[in-house]
Input
Amino acid sequence: MEKNISDTRLSYQPLYEQIKRMLVQNLIDAKWKAGELIPSEQELAANFKVSQGSVRKAIDVLVQENILIRRQGKGTYVATHAQEGAKLRFLRLTGEDGKKAIPQNQLISCQRTRAPAAVARQLDLKTGASVIEVKRLLLFKGEPLIYDLLMVPAKDFQGLNAKQIEEHKGSMYSMYEQIFGIRMVRAAEEIKAVAATEEAAQLLGLAPQTPLLQIERTSYTYGDKPLEWRLGLCLTDGYHYRNELE
Output
């Protein structure tokens, strides 16, 4: 990482943004893995040949974006989906008491298939590209609440199979991180009300056409690369979708 920041300086880009890009590139290159301690601000400033204040500002932004995390008296670490508070980061369904419920996962299927055009667009793939499709039920207090359909590019998740999913006790995001070295850092969602499909109704134990909340999500890794498309069909009896706006 002995690289002078001036080598990549762009006149229109603030210095701390250039440093941020270089820090993210180190994450993309797996120089620092999820959960690992990164070099100190002083070390980074020396390596980049910039002021410590510029490095601190770049790290501040990455902390705000949940890419890095500061630990008092210990240093700055790469954020991980395994840490407390991050396990349910993208789950917005909340009970009437305002608390997030921890779901149980029931795998329905895991198979290789071809990406439909709409999914391919979201994942920046060609239509018909090879993807791994996973279908699950998410149960809350033993009752099926969400029919979960997701697709990931097969080339990035080679070897992903039903056995891995069933044996992993955490979220899909923590599994991506631990097994494939891929960390999802942000997600974009679209929400609308829909009628239950025949498949969803059967799996959720509902009458066909029962109203459901549809949550379509695309999740991104470092460098804003889309690596998971997900569709959740949610029964909201006793639960609601909660988001905090800043």
User: Anything to note?
Assistant: The CA atoms of residues 40 and 56 lie 10 Å apart.
